[in-house]
Every structure is written in structure tokens, then in C-alpha cells.
Specification:
It comes from marine metagenome. Helices cover about 30% and strands about 20% of the residues. The chain is α/β, with parallel strands linked by helices. The longest helix has 15 residues, at about 50-65. The radius of gyration is 20 Å and the shape is elongated.
Amino acid sequence: MNKQDILDLLKTIHYPGFNRDIVSFGMVKDVLIENDSIGVLLNITSQNEKKKQKVIKLVERKLSDLFKSISVKLTSDTDQQTPPVKSQHNESVIPILENVDHVLAIASGKGGVGKSTIAANLACAIAQQGKKVGLLDLDIYGPSMPIVLGINEQPLMTENKKLIPLEKFGMKIMSFGFISGNDTPVIWRGPLVSRMTEQFFRDVEWGELDVMILDLPPGTGDIQLTLTQKLQISGAII
């Protein structure tokens, strides 16, 4: 049995929650076969550890009748390029959005080009397919999602002081406009912007999501830098 035979076999394994297999998703990075031993290298961009472990078990089960020794390991495209992010206390930064499978950023070089409209419609379309979707408006200088979606409410808080996202069209939604009021002008500097951005991830009760859509502010700045440092982005639309 060669590498292609193994890939064909792994094509029968669907990624949890999707009708697409792990090979066509590009998650199988390498297969090494030596006598009755096999090693499979997976690259799963999801931040949901439960689903990662489920895929590993599915691969092991699929190969258990063919090999005596099976090694399935996870890797990342950035493993050899980016060192782990450390805090001031030299400890690994606590991961955020662990229960979100895929994070998709919607960005543009300038404002007024329909970025928020695309983000809202894309989120609605994915939600209509039965997926659990979150839509986060990160344009804290001029949030437009309350207007785009016709929402004029303020989010409630849990006993643990976490914000509860508003829900509409079958998706969870959060925007700075829900908190500050959409007509309130905001002038913030870098450190405050980064801190507020991270709070939208850590201090909002998102729950388990298949996809989170991020509506970014125009251009490049503190919010975009915070995202690249704190999140593993699955993809982006520019």
C-alpha cells in the first residue's frame, strides 16, 4: 500500500460538521509508510480542540486494520516561521475563540466599498446552510453593522460579566455600536484599540461556532495587528 492508497482511504473521512473530506480540505500534509508503521501529518486550522482530536481518532481508526504502529500528529504552516507568543510573565498567551472552527476576515483598503454589506450577507448565507455563525463588527471607529442589520439594542451580560451577543437571522452578532451607540464618535489610540479588540474575543459569550466572520475597519492598523498576533485566521476576503 502506497501513499496514494492512504490518501484515497482518508478521503472517506469527512471533517466534523462538513460534507467535505479532510484530504480535499488540504488537512493531510504528509504520509510516511515504513513496513507495518505509518505516520500521518495533519494541518487543521480550526481552533476547536475537540474537533481536532476527533479527526485524529477517525484517522487512527481508519488505519488500525492496516498498520501495527500508527502516529498521527498535528502541524501548522507557521510552526517553523513564527515562535510562540509569550506574555510579560514568559507564559504562553491563553488561546481565544477555542470553540470557533474557522475565522474569516473581511477587509478593504478604504472605507465605503461595501465591506460590511458583504460580511453581513456572507454570514447570513452561511447561517442559512445550517452552520453556527458569529458576526463581529470590529470597526470601533465607525461601526455600521447595527445599521446594516437594523439592530438598535444593547447586549445583556452573564453572571460572569461576559457580553451575550445579539441574535438575528440565525446568527450571533456583536458590534461596538451596540455598546457605544452608533451615533457616538470615537477617538481612541493604539493600546486602547488593541485591548478593546481582544475583549470582543475573550469577554463575549460566543459559544461553539462553525464560522466567525470579522468585519474589519478599512486600511491596516492596530486592529489588524492584534488579529494576526492573537488569532489563527482561516481566510480573508479583500
